[in-house]
Write a structure and sequence with these properties.
82% of the residues lie in helices and 0% in strands. It contains ten helices and no strands. Helix 5 packs antiparallel against helix 6 and helix 8 runs antiparallel to helix 9.
């Protein structure tokens, strides 16, 4: 009878351990979910680590389910079950350590992201030259808009590039600003405004760094709008004006397909 009580106590103890482990695993799962959300919204630098973490969690979850099934099926083999619990505790501990490492890296990513955003806000808050308050260097104003473009803040970038072209039409960055303005519209699927901006780029800056690319994107937009004759004319002009460029090669391939 004493032996039976001992087995029952061991069983109860193991069951309590499993309950505690289940709570730990659920907490870890919630942390992983929150981490995944933050990474998706702000940065993908640690995406691979999170995927590995989720794989480990899935493995541990399977082991946990098997242990619960074994516990419900029989009270026999408590020693083996205790070993499994101990192993799972070790895995959970490792998972917690991994989460701490990822949290540290995420904090560093967040810090850099915040610093970058502060720099953007500082640049954006600089008075424009039109206000007459301060002589602002065009490259700083351009950089603020370009940074918005890089991180996908297309509405802000559009406003910034438009203001830049109004205030600094003679700047060495004006051709790039005109091109990226068109690309912002293109990213927003506003094909008409994108086409208009690219037309402005090729007309105002015929020798600009982005002019050949602007021609090519004009051709792509015209093809998407099923304006094939206009598309062919633009692509031929691109090949003629920039014969050695990558865009001219791509335009030649498009022309070959259109002629088939």
């Amino acid at each position: 009878m004493i032996l039976g009580l001992s087995q029952t106590g061991a069983y109860a103890g193991t069951q309590e351990e499993i309950i505690r482990l289940q709570s730990d695993i659920l907490q870890l799962q919630e942390q992983i979910r929150l981490l995944q959300k933050v990474v998706d919204e702000k940065n993908s630098v640690i995406q691979t680590l999170l995927e590995q973490l989720n794989d480990q969690f899935a493995t541990n979850n399977v082991a946990f389910s098997q242990m619960v099934d074994a516990l419900n099926a029989s009270r026999a083999g408590n020693a083996s079950l205790a070993d499994n619990v101990s192993s799972l505790k070790t895995d959970v501990s490792r998972l917690s350590t991994r989460l701490d490492e990822i949290n540290s890296r995420l904090a560093e990513v967040q810090r850099k992201f915040d610093e970058n955003q502060m720099q953007v806000q500082t640049l954006r808050s600089v008075p424009s030259a039109a206000s007459g308050d301060v002589d602002v260097e065009p490259d700083r104003v351009y950089s603020a808009s370009y940074n918005d473009y890089l991180v996908g803040n297309y509405a802000l970038a559009i406003n910034g590039f438009q203001d830049f072209l109004t205030n600094y039409p003679e700047s060495e960055y004006a051709d790039n600003a005109s091109y990226y303005l068109g690309d912002c519209y293109l990213q927003q699927k506003n094909l008409d405004l994108a086409l208009k901006s690219f037309e402005q780029t090729v007309n105002l800056f015929p020798s600009g760094d982005k002019t050949s690319t602007a021609y090519y994107k004009m051709g792509q937009i015209l093809m998407e709008q099923n304006r094939m004759d206009e598309a062919v004319a633009i692509l031929k002009k691109l090949v003629q004006l920039f014969p050695g460029s990558t865009e001219a090669r791509l335009a030649g391939e498009d022309l070959s397909k259109l002629s088939q």
